[in-house]
């Protein structure tokens, strides 16, 4: 148990002072219903404005499913073990509720991709280009490892068809191959989508199969990236459709939205047609919430650190808002869709410690998951996990009950870690310390990859830590990076689910323009795209967007890569924005060199269900409850101060203060830790 700490003395209320009426976005019209009973097992309930719609956010992780409910002026959070059948688990987690709005972060698409249990796909492309999807960019996954291979293509060679002009012959060949989904990716479709559209019409009438067109899924140049994204989306379409239909049938809420990789919300009905956009659905919610809490407290640059039971997700947030990139990889497969730039590693509370053939200590990526879970859960697990190591180290109190349901058995944790220690010739405490050092090193590297390796100084940022295990490792990681401030927000154990309530409905459109510097008016180029994205948003959400903006992919003439920058007025402003970004990312500019505008990207967003300012500011006097260095977070009032070493516990997570760490409880009950 940690030694004692030293204490010192010390509304979703809807509208910040001076602001007018807030408009809560609704994708369909329906009278608000009164929720008869709150979701059972809640923790950390706080007051909010009951005038806002009832809503529930559910984020499914590898070990736990996080639930946040807003009902009748109260926000509540809880954790439940993740079920092997996600739809069953989510339905059970929200049983008894009748909230007006259901918001969901899911790993259904990610799991189907990583486990390779997607659909049987046929790819149609131009004759002679059937192998583009396998040739790719010839990048090697590990430059000096001749045994490292790229993952196999999601469409086999005998299911790739070259189209040479006869749709009837093509339809017959496809019928013989018996695919479940057809992906069309013609080489020039980003310039001329008509051929794909006609081919789609002819094949659909003959085959009665879902057909996805690259000119809709990813209408940008570069044939490999367009084909890869279209095939990936086709591969995921049946499993995502099945999951969302299954969940849809179990939910009492009439308004149901799913988080996309961009951090925006999309109606359930649109999910199957945008399956590739759900690959980062789960992690995006945490990044949205981290940006909100950082912005609320005046921090322009934030490193988001989400450590759960199976993995850790990190992300850098600059300028107070969440950047959204135009592509990412999942399981080594490229997916060119709008996505929050999240780096995920296999390091979480359930990550297993083991020895490699050379006798070196490793931690992760294998995880104990929800079943059997860490040894301390007493559910049959025998392998040592990071959670077990934290218990042995005294960072997690023995009487903590995770999620209010999972009791810990320290003797089982010690037994599991002792077995690993014996294999290394170390005692149980030394083995636990070694596991924590290894996993901290993995997470430090991930944080450096989204900061230092991208030209950003982590010392200028604050670390926003959350997830069930985030608070236990946050201050050590901040010290490793030279950071001085850590924020642990309210409901940190279910923070990604809370982020769903803070996300905006969103539509994205991109187009390739290929304009040389000075060629045309940049705003005129963007106007048609902004009109189109507004029309798309209106058709999706049955309301007008509250905000639209356009960015540009720009490069020096002759470069093979672009940087996405705000679309400034005129070419001079665009060049200045590009060179600022180029200098930060690469450390140099090529003064006087001409630039070219490659792609335009327009985004339309609506009103989020709530903002961070809507969350309650608890100001009433309370008596802090602590004993032997263990403090209960819900009893710590704003203004309360504490110096480590100490442990702050709540139902869904814990926070470790090391020697010299100074904690202050802010007015919104965020814990601010200065190092």
Care to describe what's here?
The chain is of the alpha+beta class. The chain contains 15 helices and 34 strands. Strands 1-30-33-34-23-22-13-14-17 form a nine-stranded mixed beta sheet, with helices on both faces. The two termini are 22 Å apart.
Cα Rg: 25 Å
Instruction: Describe the largest sheet.
Output: 9 strands, mixed
Q: Using DSSP, what is the number of strands?
A: 34
Quote the distance from N terminus to C terminus: 22 Å
Q: Main traits of this protein?
A:
675 residues; disordered N terminus; 34 strands; alpha+beta
Give a quick precis of the structure.
It contains 15 helices and 34 strands. It has 675 residues and is of the alpha+beta class. It has a nine-stranded mixed β-sheet with strand order 1-30-33-34-23-22-13-14-17, with helices on both faces. Strands 2-5-4-3-6-11-12 form a seven-stranded mixed β-sheet, sandwiched between helices. The chain has a four-stranded parallel β-sheet with strand order 8-7-9-10, sandwiched between helices.
């Amino acid at each position: 148990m940690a030694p004692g700490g030293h204490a010192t003395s010390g509304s979703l209320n809807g509208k910040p002072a001076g602001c007018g009426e807030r408009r809560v976005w609704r994708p369909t019209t329906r009278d608000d219903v009164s929720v008869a009973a709150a979701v059972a097992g809640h923790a950390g309930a706080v007051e909010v404005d009951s005038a806002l719609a009832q809503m529930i956010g559910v984020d499914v992780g590898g070990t736990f499913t996080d639930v946040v409910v807003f009902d009748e002026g109260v926000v509540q959070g809880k954790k439940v073990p993740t079920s092997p059948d996600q739809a069953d688990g989510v339905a059970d987690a929200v049983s008894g509720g009748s909230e007006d709005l259901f918001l969901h972060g899911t790993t259904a698409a990610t799991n189907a991709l990583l486990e390779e249990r997607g659909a049987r796909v046929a790819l149609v492309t131009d004759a002679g280009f059937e192998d583009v999807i396998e040739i790719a960019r010839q990048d090697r996954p590990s430059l000096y490892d001749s045994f490292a291979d790229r993952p196999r293509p999601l469409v086999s060679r005998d299911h790739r068809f070259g189209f040479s002009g006869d749709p009837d012959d093509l339809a017959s060949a496809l019928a013989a191959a018996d695919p479940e989904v057809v992906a069309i990716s013609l080489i020039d479709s980003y310039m001329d989508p008509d051929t794909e559209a006609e081919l789609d019409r002819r094949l659909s009438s003959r085959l009665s199969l879902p057909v996805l067109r690259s000119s809709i899924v990813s209408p940008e140049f570069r044939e490999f990236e367009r084909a890869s994204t279209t095939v990936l989306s086709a591969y995921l379409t049946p499993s995502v459709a099945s999951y969302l239909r299954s969940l849809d049938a179990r939910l009492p809420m009439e308004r149901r939205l799913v988080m996309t990789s961009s951090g925006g919300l999309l109606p359930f009905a649109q999910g199957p047609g945008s399956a590739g956009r759900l690959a980062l659905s789960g992690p995006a919610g945490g990044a949205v919430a981290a940006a909100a809490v950082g912005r609320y407290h005046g921090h322009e640059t934030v490193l988001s650190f989400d450590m759960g039971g199976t993995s850790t997700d990190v992300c850098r947030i600059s300028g107070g808002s969440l950047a959204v990139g135009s592509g990412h990889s999942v399981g080594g497969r490229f997916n060119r869709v709008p996505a929050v730039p999240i780096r995920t590693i296999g390091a979480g509370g359930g990550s297993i410690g083991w020895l490699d053939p050379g006798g070196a200590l490793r931690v992760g990526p294998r995880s104990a998951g929800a079943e059997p879970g860490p040894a301390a859960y007493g559910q049959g697990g025998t392998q040592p996990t990071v959670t077990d190591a934290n218990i042995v180290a005294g960072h997690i109190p023995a009487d903590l009950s995770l999620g209010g349901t999972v009791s810990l058995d320290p003797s089982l944790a010690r037994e599991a870690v002792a077995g690993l220690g014996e294999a290394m010739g170390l005692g149980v405490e030394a083995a636990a310390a070694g596991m924590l050092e290894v996993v901290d090193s993995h997470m430090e590297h991930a944080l450096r990859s989204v900061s230092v390796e991208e030209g950003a100084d982590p010392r200028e940022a604050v670390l926003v830590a959350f997830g069930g295990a985030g608070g236990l490792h946050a201050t050590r990681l901040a010290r490793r990076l030279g950071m001085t401030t850590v924020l642990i927000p309210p409901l940190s154990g279910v923070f990604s689910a809370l982020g769903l309530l803070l996300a905006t409905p969103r539509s994205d459109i991109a187009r390739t323009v290929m304009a040389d510097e000075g060629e045309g008016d940049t705003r005129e180029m963007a106007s048609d795209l902004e009109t189109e994205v507004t029309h798309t948003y209106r058709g999706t959400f049955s309301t007008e967007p509250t905000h639209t903006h356009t960015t540009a992919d720009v490069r020096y003439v002759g470069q093979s890569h672009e940087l996405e920058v705000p679309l400034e007025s005129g070419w001079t402003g665009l060049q200045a924005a590009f060179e600022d970004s180029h200098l930060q990312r690469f450390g140099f500019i090529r003064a006087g060199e001409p630039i070219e505008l490659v792609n335009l990207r327009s985004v339309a967003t609506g009103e989020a269900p709530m903002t961070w300012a809507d969350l309650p500011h608890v100001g009433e006097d309370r008596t802090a409850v602590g004993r032997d260095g263990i403090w209960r977070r819900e009893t710590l009032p704003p203004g309360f101060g504490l110096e480590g070493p100490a442990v702050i516990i709540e139902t869904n997570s814990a926070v470790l203060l090391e020697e010299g760490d100074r904690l202050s409880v802010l007015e919104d009950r965020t814990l601010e830790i200065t190092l």
